[in-house]
Amino acid sequence: MASVETWVGFGSAMAGVGLLWSRMPEHVHEEARYIISSLVPMAMSYFNPYEQITVSEYGEERFRRNKMFDAVSTYLSRVCAGGACKLKAELCNNTKDDPVVTLDENQEVVDSFDGARMWWRLCPKASKNKGAINVSYYPGETDEPRCFRLVFHKRHRQLVLSSYLPSVVRRWRELTAKNRQRRLFTNHASEGNKSVWTSVPYNPPATFDMLAMDHTKKVDIMEDLTAFQKGKEYHSKVGKAWKRGYLLHGPPGTGKSTMIGAMANFLDYDVYDLDLTSVKNNSELRKLFLDTTDKSIIVIEDIDAIEDELTTKRKGNKVVNGDDEIRDKRMLVEFADKNDEKSRVTLSGLLSFVDGLWSACGSERVFMFTTNHIDRLDPALIRPGRMDKHIEMSYCRFEAFKVLAKSYLDITDHSLFAEIGRLLNETDTTPADVADNLMVRSKRNGEISRLLLDDEMDGSPPADVANNFMLRCKRKRDADECLAGLVQTLKKSKMESATPPMDIIEEEAKEEHNLTQKKATEGGGYMMNARC
Ligand SMILES: Nc1ncnc2c1ncn2[C@@H]1O[C@H](COP(=O)(O)OP(=O)(O)OP(=O)(O)O)[C@@H](O)[C@H]1O
Ligand SMILES: [Mg+2]
């Protein structure tokens, strides 16, 4: 390795000579300067038998992370870390006890491939212009990012480019597929006030099996997702970006967020939960989108509320109602596009990623917008073809209830099912409310069981205690009591929906009173006369 370093050092020295020479004073003859500065690289390559490839952490334009850097990092950590004496350990996955070990900065490792030796080194971040003050928009642009340097003999150049590096990428894909931890990303304003992604491990508990909704609809969504996942060739054949857009709409508590978790589990994708309120402008939004990885779900929850906020900002807080509002929103979007592009996130900026020019950057992405009020959305968002699928999440009916009963109580039939089915048809109850009724019961049982078990399980290992505890809780669940409680809740809500709320009663009483008074005033003269 010493000899490699010598040669690489020699190359740098020669480059320095070249640089010095190019800065020679003017009086040195122009022609001599030209000849010598062209000779230096030639001499350098003649004497130096080694070549070098740099794999920087960020792409040339600093806009997005260089995936090759991640590939090399994982590959070296798993394949070559044995030969390194300086490593870093990080606990990345909450569910596993194995720390992730990576190379430390300035650590070198040697790899061999087809009889050729490869020397790798992780070079730390370096200041580009020491002493100079740089103002930059993108994070870390004033610094040279971290990079891996690969040094190899020049006779292996073809081998490195056409076989070794592709094999590193292949190995990286295998390793990440095996040990993948799904992550949930969200964006927040960083120190420099720029929005950046941060992530946590993500293991959503929901699956499609547990999702309470119309069975045909559920199967249709699952088939749609499967077709999308297998649709690489189809998308390239028809010249379409490999992405899919879903708009989930329905009242609160009908399972829109639960559905996102179920989709992430089904597809095994990461989730990016985009908070538009902490994004300053379209340019920042573009950077965030470009920083997302393939095989991911990009979520914007409550798009109607966000849209309102964006519009309010543009309106200067002017309040407009009804049809005017929709017209105004569109005008304001256009206005913002023309005049305010640099300082705002605009609807068209957002849509350019969903199905505009930028949607072709990246592949295998699912966009999910959720809303409680589809009627309030800008027509631009819901026009045919904008989102591939509109999914309505609706109130809990009997079929959906049976899914919840199976998940929460582990029952598929009961004497109260018929009554519950009828009541669910007559009321608008959300799956969240039904689930809550089933949960309350389980909690109560859990508490009783805990009291019973506390004495019995003294001294047992905690895992055994927990397992036994769960089993006993399950056994003790009293489905009769639980479903009877649900029937009561449903009856109550049926009565409440049949009786108009107090404010409506008061309003009606007030109107009747006004009407009587008006009649009295109009007919007053007559009455008076009549009385007279
Ligand atoms: N369709 C459903 N299937 C199974 N569980 C559900 C369903 N809908 C709601 N739940 C239960 O209710 C809870 C709340 O549901 P969720 O957060 O998914 O509703 P939401 O539609 O996203 O509501 P919001 O509009 O307020 O965000 C979930 O944690 C889940 O336990
Ligand atoms: Mg939600």
From TrEMBL:
<dbReference type="GO" id="GO:0016887">
    <property type="term" value="F:ATP hydrolysis activity"/>
</dbReference>
<dbReference type="InterPro" id="IPR003593">
    <property type="entry name" value="AAA+_ATPase"/>
</dbReference>
<dbReference type="Pfam" id="PF14363">
    <property type="entry name" value="AAA_assoc"/>
</dbReference>
<comment type="similarity">
    <text>Belongs to the AAA ATPase family. BCS1 subfamily.</text>
</comment>
<feature type="domain" description="AAA+ ATPase">
    <location>
        <begin position="242"/>
        <end position="397"/>
    </location>
</feature>
<dbReference type="GO" id="GO:0006950">
    <property type="term" value="P:response to stress"/>
</dbReference>
<protein>
    <recommendedName>
        <fullName>AAA+ ATPase domain-containing protein</fullName>
    </recommendedName>
</protein>
<keyword id="KW-0460">Magnesium</keyword>
<dbReference type="Pfam" id="PF00004">
    <property type="entry name" value="AAA"/>
</dbReference>
<dbReference type="Pfam" id="PF25568">
    <property type="entry name" value="AAA_lid_At3g28540"/>
</dbReference>
<dbReference type="InterPro" id="IPR003959">
    <property type="entry name" value="ATPase_AAA_core"/>
</dbReference>
<dbReference type="GO" id="GO:0005524">
    <property type="term" value="F:ATP binding"/>
</dbReference>
<dbReference type="InterPro" id="IPR050747">
    <property type="entry name" value="Mitochondrial_chaperone_BCS1"/>
</dbReference>
<dbReference type="InterPro" id="IPR058017">
    <property type="entry name" value="At3g28540-like_C"/>
</dbReference>
<dbReference type="InterPro" id="IPR027417">
    <property type="entry name" value="P-loop_NTPase"/>
</dbReference>
<dbReference type="InterPro" id="IPR025753">
    <property type="entry name" value="AAA_N_dom"/>
</dbReference>
